[in-house]
Amino acid sequence: MTIIGSLPDLPSIMLYSHMDTVQTSSDWTHHPYSGYKDENGTIYGRGAQDMKSLGIQHMEAFRNLFEQGIKQWKRTIHIVFAPDEETGSENGMKGFVKSEEFKKLNIGFSLDEGGPSQKDIYDVYYGEKVTWFVNVTITGSAGHGSKFIKNTALEKLERLLYNTRKFRNEQEALMNKNNLTLADVTTLNVNIINGGVLVNILPEKIHVCELRNGYFREEPLSFQRLICD
Ligand SMILES: [Zn+2]
Fold first, then answer.
1. CA-to-CA distance for 84 and 22, rounded, in angstroms?
2. CA dihedral for 140, 143, 145, 149, sign (positive or negative)
3. Which residue of the set 85, 120, 184, 210 is catalytic?
4. What is the CA radius of gyration of the chain?
5. Is 85 a catalytic residue?
């Protein structure tokens, strides 16, 4: 949706949100795609927060301003809804920015997804938090599960989990102590652990996937040491 500005040659503003969501699980109180709204006004639906909550705010803001008779700004404003953000944006914004159509929009400033606000305040912050998928393959000595085998993958997994939790706790403490928000710190969570084939055999390999969301204050290699040593 485009609102042409009074000076349309100026670089334009893009208000971006994505429409797709991550997959659903089977334990929803209400159908994840029903958009069910209960008596308190709480909306249940995949993507209600991430990130239709922001897309709807863009639309509501313009509706309110239009009702007040404000219908044009100096710069052209593009309200963009894109697909495939959760899967890497190849057929979404990542592909769109390479197109001629995108270049023609002459975008000078973009406001996109940020952290959700739990207050009636729309938090705006600048800076780019980087999402990093950390895949760790832990190898160790395998053998029969009835023995005291040394240097197992499980021992290393314990260290990885300990280091991850230590980093996570430090960041959380930093946020709470200085009254910061999620936008100011780096989060780190172990989200997938896979390993083992038989109940009586020590696993030779364990795969761990972590999600790190934050700023590269440290080099990737030193971060690797931080969680793996
Ligand atoms: Zn999102």
1. 10
2. negative
3. 85
4. 23
5. yes
pLDDT for the residue 216: 67
How close is the Cα of 44 to the center of ligand 1, in Å? 16
Residues in contact with 110: Cβ distance below 8 Å, sequence separation at least 6, in sequence order: 13, 14, 15, 16
Could you tell me if 22 and 84 are in contact, meaning their C-beta atoms sit under 8 angstroms apart? no
Distance 183 CA to ligand 1 centre (A): 14
Q: Annotate 38-92 with DSSP letters as a single string.
A: -TT-PEESTTTTTTHHHHHHHHHHHHHHHHTT----SS-EEEEEES-GGGTSTTT
Count of beta carbons in the 10 Å neighbourhood of residue 213: 15
User: Model confidence over 45-70: pLDDT tens digits?
Assistant: 999 989 998 899 999 999 999 999 99
Longest dimension (CA), the chain: 78
Buried b (16+ CB within 10 A) or exposed e, 63-95: eeeeeeeeeeeebbbbbbbbebbeeebeebbee
Rounded distance from Cα 58 to ligand 1 centre (Å):
15
Helix or strand holding residue 170 (H, E): helix 153-177
- Our answer to whether residue 229 is catalytic in this structure is no
Residue 161: band (very low, low, confident or very high) from pLDDT cuts 50, 70, 90: very high
Could you give all domains of the chain from N- to C-terminal order, each with its CATH number? Answer: 2-111 (3.40.630.10), 130-228 (3.30.70.360)
Mean pLDDT along residues 127-149: 90
